[in-house]
Amino acid sequence: MNRALGAALLLSLAIGCARGGDMPLNRVAMRESHPRTIALVRGNTPSPGFPRFFRLCSDARRTYPCADVAGWVNSARSNELANNSGIADPSIEIAETLMAALSKKYSLARMEGVTIRAPVTVAELSKPDYPQADLILAVGTLGWGFGPIGRGQSHVSYRGTIGLIDMRSKAVVARATCTYNPLPNDDDPQYDDVIANDFALLKGWLHQAAETCSDDYRLRILGIYGSAAR
């Protein structure tokens, strides 16, 4: 079961920026409750933020913008670029990493998950359309992309959320937000370098964002360390 439901991502019960802020998991209580199954509910990927760039040309008389290099100023063109170039939302990697860590840590059987686009409540998750697992891991992206920081240089950013819901008690037992936005510096690459080799540098940045947020969630919120992490 892999269904797209509704309109815009709002994992209202689970996202870390929601009221109350981050909530680390009570690991003792989790282990003593003996969950047996877990399923992933991942938010549908929002349109990435890609900038509009113009390449400058010159002749004997003037310098002028001669080519719309990117022009990804709307969601349709941004989505097309990401899909055609294999530029992946970091939440996909984050979700798989955390599912593996939780499944190993608590000896959980993994049930098939869903991708959603709708506001979700615990009551909604209890319906037959959703996985009937003891635990639901909700993972979503709030924003992602790259843009100019001056002098023709570019910079990547990512912001996402997770929530762990115990469907037996109908309670959110952990939640967090992660922001990956390294400080710009003089060594940041030029735009042409970012898009070279089928966006290899951008893909590497987004993988680093996924690793950074996965480690933050795993250590700070879920308390999974060492050999149980993989």
Description:
This protein has 230 residues and is α/β, with parallel strands linked by helices. It has five helices and seven strands; from the N terminus they run αβββααβαβββα. Strand 6 (153-166) and strand 7 form a beta hairpin. Helix 3 (90-106) runs parallel beside helix 5 (191-221).
Broad structural category: alpha/beta
Overall outline? elongated
Low-confidence stretches: 1-19, 68-73
Number of helical stretches of at least 4 residues: 5
Q: Which CATH class is shown? A: Alpha Beta
Strand content: 25-35%
User: Number of folding domains?
Assistant: 1
Largest sheet: 5 strands, mixed
Instruction: Give me the strand/helix succession.
Output: HEEEHHEHEEEH
What CATH architecture would you give?
3-Layer(aba) Sandwich
- The chain-level mean pLDDT equals 80
Q: How far apart are the first and last residues' alpha carbons, in Å?
A: 25 Å
Radius of gyration from the CA trace?
A: 20 Å
Q: Report the strand count.
A: 7
The level of helicity is 25-40%
In the sheet with the most strands, the strands line up as: 4-1-5-6-7
**Fold-level CATH name:** Rossmann fold
